[in-house]
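help with this:

***
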Amino acid sequence: MKISSRFAVAVHALLAIYALGDEYKMTSDFIASSVNVNPVIIRRTLLSLKAAGIVAVKSGSGGAVPLKNAADVSLYDIYTAVDCLDGSLFNFHENPNPECPVGKNIHSVLDSHLDSAQKALEDELKKTSFEDLLKKLDSLT
C-alpha cells in the first residue's frame, strides 16, 4: 500500500516553483519537464495547490507563483492539499469473520496502533517546511 504519487509530484512541483520561479516562468509544461510527467498532471496538481491557497496560477501560459513564504508551508499542507489519501493510511479488509476469535477482535487489537502510526506520519510531515527542503536542495546543487 502506498500513498499516492500525487504527493511527491506536488512536492517536486512546488520545489521547482520556489527554487526556480525567479529565473523561469513556472508553466505546467516547464514543471512537467522537471517532474517528467504529462503537463495535465501538473495542471491538476496546481489546481489543488491553488485551492489550498499555496500558489496562484495565471490562466493561459502565465505560470504559477507561490502565495506563501516557504517557511509557512509544510509537507503536511501539501499532503492534505493534494488529497493523496483516501481516508486512513491503512485499509482494512471489510468483513472479518465475526465467528472467528481473531476476526471478531481484529479491530479492537489493531486499530489504535494503526491510528497512532498515521498520526506519527502526519506529525512528522508537519515538522518539515518548504524552507527546510529548499535549504537541502540548495546544498546539493
Observations:
- The CA atoms of residues 6 and 84 lie 6 Å apart.
- The chain has a mean pLDDT of 91.
- Helices lie at 6-20, 28-35, 39-51, 75-81, 106-127, 130-140.
